[in-house]
Design goal:
This protein is of the alpha/beta class. It folds into 3 domains: 172 residues, FAD/NAD(P)-binding domain (3-Layer(bba) Sandwich); 115 residues, FAD/NAD(P)-binding domain (3-Layer(bba) Sandwich); 126 residues, FAD/NAD(P)-binding domain. 24% of the residues lie in helices and 27% in strands. The protein has 11 helices and 27 strands. Helix 2 links the parallel strand 2 and strand 3. Helix 1 packs parallel to helix 7. The longest helix has 13 residues. It is globular. The termini are far apart.
C-alpha cells in the first residue's frame, strides 16, 4: 500500500493532524492507522465511572470525521518504521509506504513495577483503552472500598466520580496537597476542602509502601504504617510517552522519553513528525523541557504539523507549551495557565502577584451566582503576565483559556487593564468588579515604576 501522508494514532492529535493535512493539501492521500476500533475522548475517561456511565457514551467520532474528509482508516498495529525506505510494517505483515509520517502514538500509564502488589487482581491503571476500561468498570461496580494512589487530575476526578457512584474512596498522595504539581497551595487547599466535603477521604504527605493481598487486593499499606482496607486500587501515578516505536526507528528520544521535535513538529528525520503526548515540549516562558500531556496541546501541535507537511511557513510554528489545565469538583471549577507563583519563583523570575475574589454574575442575588477567584503572576519589571490561576463556577474553563491567550500574546498588565470587555448580568461579573481586571489592578499596584511603587 502507498499513501502520501500516514498518521499513526486516531486520538486528538492524529485526528486533527489528518483533517488539517487534508484541508491544506486536498490533493494528497492521507491514511490513518489505529489499534482501537473505538477512539475514546481522553479527558472524559474519569467520568466513565460516574457521570457519563460507560465508555460507549465517551466516544470521539473519529471514524465519521475521517470518512467525511476522505481519509482512509485502517485498524492495525504498526510493528516497525523503515526510515530508509519510508515505510511501516503492520501487524498483518503488510507494508505501507509514505511520503510523510506523523507519529501520534500518545502516552501510556506509568506502571509502578517497584511497588509490591501492583499486579494483584483488582489493581487498575487508567489507559485510553476501551476494552480494558469496560472490564475495569464492570469489576469495580462490585467493589465497595477503593483506594486511589495519586492525586493529580485523573486521580482526583476518578475519586470524585466513584464517591458519586456510592463507593468509599480514599485518595492517597505523597505530595503535601492534591493537585500539587499544577496549582499553588492556596488553590490546592480549596480543591481539597471541597473534595473532602464530597466524602472523599484524603491522605496527603504520605507514600504507599505496598499493595496488600494474596491473589486479589485486600488493602494498601502506607509508609507511615497505616493499613487501608480495599477491594480495588486505582493507580493514577501519571503517564509516560509512548515512544518505543520511534526509538526503535532510531529517532532521538529525550531523557524523559519524549520524541525530539523542532518548532514545526518535525523529528530529526524531516519526513517524520511527532505530535501530542509522545512529542517533546518546551515551556513557553522558561524554554525548559515540559512534561505537559494535554489533548488541547496535542491539537495545537497537530495543526502545526498538518499545515507544514509539505511546505514550511515561518508563521505556522509552535513557539512553546503553555500548560493550561482545568477541572471541576461539583459545581466549582479550578484552572491554571502558564507559570504558577511557586514555579516562577523557583525559576528565578522577579514577580508580583495580583489577586481578587468577586462573583461571576451581577448582582450577586442572581441564581447560580458563584464566587470567582483570580490570581495573576506578573513579571515585576516588564509587567508581562506569566501565569494565572482561577477558581469559581464552571465558567472558569473559558476564563482559564482567556488567560492562556493573554500569556501566548505576551500581554502586559497595562494591556489587560485597558482591554475592552463585554458583560451581562446573567453571563459575567460586573464591569466594575470583573475579577480578571481587578486582579490586574492589584498586580499593577505592586509593580515598581521609576523606583517607586505606583
Amino acid at each position: 500500500m502507498k499513501t502520501d501522508v500516514l498518521v499513526i494514532g486516531s486520538s486528538a492529535a492524529g485526528l486533527v493532524a489528518a483533517t488539517t493535512g487534508k484541508r491544506i493539501y486536498a490533493d494528497k492521500k492521507i491514511m490513518v492507522i489505529t489499534q482501537q476500533e473505538k477512539t475514546l475522548i481522553p479527558c472524559g475517561i474519569p467520568y466513565v465511572f460516574g457521570s457519563v456511565g460507560s465508555t460507549d457514551n465517551n466516544i470521539l467520532p473519529a471514524e465519521k470525521m475521517f470518512k467525511a474528509n476522505d481519509i482512509e482508516l485502517i485498524y492495525n498495529d504498526v510493528i516497525s518504521i523503515d526510515r530508509k525506505n519510508k515505510s511501516v510494517k503492520l501487524g498483518s505483515k503488510e507494508v505501507v509506504e509514505y511520503q510523510k509520517l506523523v507519529l501520534g502514538t500518545g502516552s501510556i500509564p506509568i506502571e509502578p513495577f517497584w511497588l509490591k502488589g501492583f499486579d494483584l487482581e483488582n489493581v487498575y491503571s487508567v489507559p485510553k483503552d476501551k476494552v480494558y476500561l469496560d472490564e475495569m468498570h464492570s469489576k469495580i461496580a462490585n467493589c465497595k472500598k477503593i483506594v486511589t494512589i495519586g492525586a493529580g487530575f485523573i486521580g482526583v476526578e476518578i475519586s470524585d466520580e466513584l464517591v458519586k457512584a456510592g463507593k468509599e474512596v480514599t485518595l492517597v498522595e505523597k505530595l503535601p496537597h492534591i493537585l500539587g504539581l499544577a496549582f499553588d497551595e492556596d488553590i490546592s487547599l480549596k480543591a481539597e476542602s471541597i473534595l473532602k466535603e464530597r466524602n472523599v477521604n484524603i491522605l496527603t504527605g504520605v507514600g504507599v509502601k505496598e499493595i496488600v493481598g494474596t491473589k486479589k487486593v485486600e488493602g494498601v499499606l502506607l509508609e507511615n504504617g497505616t493499613l487501608i482496607d480495599a477491594d480495588a486500587v486505582v493507580l493514577a501515578m501519571g503517564y509516560k510517552p509512548n515512544s518505543l516505536l520511534a526509538e526503535n526507528a532510531g529517532l532521538t528520544i529525550s531523557e524523559k522519553g519524549f520524541i525530539k521535535v523542532d518548532e514545526y513538529m518535525r523529528t530529526e528525520d524531516a519526513n517524520i513528525f511527532a505530535i501530542g503526548d509522545c512529542a517533546e515540549k518546551r515551556d513557553f516562558v522558561t524554554r525548559k523541557p515540559s512534561p505537559i500531556m494535554l489533548a488541547s496541546t496535542a491539537c495545537a501541535e497537530a495543526r502545526i504539523a498538518g499545515m507544514n507537511l509539505f511546505k514550511l511557513s515561518a508563521i505556522k510554528t509552535f513557539s512553546g507549551t503553555i500548560s493550561i489545565f482545568a477541572t471541576a469538583i461539583g459545581n466549582t471549577g479550578f484552572g491554571v495557565a502558564g507559570l504558577t507563583e511557586t514555579i516562577a519563583r523557583q525559576e528565578g523570575f522577579d514577580i508580583v502577584t495580583g489577586v481578587f475574589e468577586g462573583i461571576d454574575r451581577h448582582p450577586g442575588t442572581l441564581k447560580d451566582t458563584h464566587s470567582q477567584f483570580v490570581k495573576l503572576i506578573v513579571g515585576k519589571e516588564s509587567g508581562v503576565i506569566l501565569g494565572g490561576e482561577v477558581s469559581g463556577g464552571l465558567s472558569i474553563g473559558e476564563l482559564t483559556n482567556t488567560i492562556g491567550i493573554i500569556i501566548q500574546n505576551r500581554m502586559s498588565i497595562n494591556s489587560l487593564l485597558t482591554a475592552q470587555i463585554g458583560t451581562h448580568p446573567l453571563l459575567t461579573a460586573s464591569p466594575a468588579g470583573y475579577p480578571l481586571i481587578k486582579a490586574a489592578e492589584n498586580a499593577s499596584s505592586k509593580i515598581m515604576f521609576n523606583g517607586k511603587i505606583d
